[in-house]
Structures
1.
Amino acid sequence: MKKLVYIKLGVFLVSAITLCARTMTKAGGIGGVATQRGTSTGSKKIWMLVRFTLVGAASCATFASNAADFQRYATKSKDVIRGNLLRFPFANASPSPSTERP
């Protein structure tokens, strides 16, 4: 099981980097994407906030379900607590991809 978790992590990293590179290539670089202002207003903006809140909740649920896979390999009981305190906030601080298409 441990090998499968690491394989899954490797596939995720490769696909995330590839998707980011493809998106920046199609956008013509990061400059225009990073400096443009949002165009959503009113109820559309509210529903987008709700949607991204739910995406964040899904991220927390995924972390919680995968944490047990890594915790079983801890050599000391304190490793589990330290790992969750350090890694959980970092995992949730990373931006979630937008699911809205233009």
2.
Amino acid sequence: MTQHHIIRICATGAECSGKTTLAHALGARFEAPVVEEYGREYFTAKMAKGDATVFAGDLVRVIGEQSRREDLAAATKPELMIFDTDVFTVAVWHERYLGGRRPEIDHLSDMRAAEGKGMDLYLLCVPEFPFVPDDIRSGEPMRTAMHDVFVRELKHKGYPYIEMHGSHQARVALAVTEIQRLLLAQDEASAR
């Protein structure tokens, strides 16, 4: 018996690069569940309490809850899931906030992939849209540097990705084409 494979697509990248908007547009287009970014929720709540610090323990908690939410959404066995971040993305942000990588954080990301819970495709959103500040975003100067970090880490891990350029509509059109390709390939593989 063939195990059910869920196609997993993750919008990732620097701050204010259109990830959430893209993820929700794709979720609506394909009537697929969208797994929200837990880190934003967690750090917004922490900031509301007057605590602007970021510790490794915070990111481990975020990864744990992000994983739990991913698994909860996957339990319904949809054909396709859309992610507005994932464990790999949180691991990359660890470098930004804490000035380096930690093997145990990267290991959590690697474990998800080894368990068959890795992404089939990352949609790396290029930070071309105007920066919109809020209470938890770092700022405009970090966006290009973080984009470069995402490119480096995606290549290093060998994860499949495409860069999303242009208008929101152009990004959605490109992503739809790529997702349809993956869905068709899965249908063809199932038919064999």
3.
Amino acid sequence: MSIVIPAPVTAPQIIQVAEQHRRLVFFGTPAFAVPSLRKLHASGWDIAAVITAPDKPVGRKKILTHSPMHTVALELNIPVLTPQKLRDESFRSALAAYNPTACIVVAYGKIIPDEALKIPHLGFINVHPSLLPAYRGPSPIQTAILDGCASTGVSIMKLDALMDHGPILATTSWQIP
């Protein structure tokens, strides 16, 4: 299937094309990402696959344990990929085979390589828990609280090859209690 996307792409155009084709691949790892996956799934989006971190040893007995995202994906009967390296050709081939309209990233924990960013028709959309450009990086919520911020928010952005960088498509803010 070929999807025609005008350039430059605006947020309403991304939403319009995505809603017509509705095929997503979701990247996430911790419990923080679970509500986003559940909401997309409940809203009828075709989640072709979930990409999450590989199982990790947990506890004194070092029992290999799924990430929270992996566990929920299995519960929702969504295929799961746990690549060690995103630069591997086998991973890129697997991602391309899903033919995603877009990839959604929520707290995945790894930088997506440029070769993978080019695979989905609409690119990668990242949900970042801060009002960018403030608080880029791995702990934006904690840092905003430690800095005594009165408010924070969420930024929805299109990913590019840099960390927490790319055009911001939407933001919402709220007061920190």
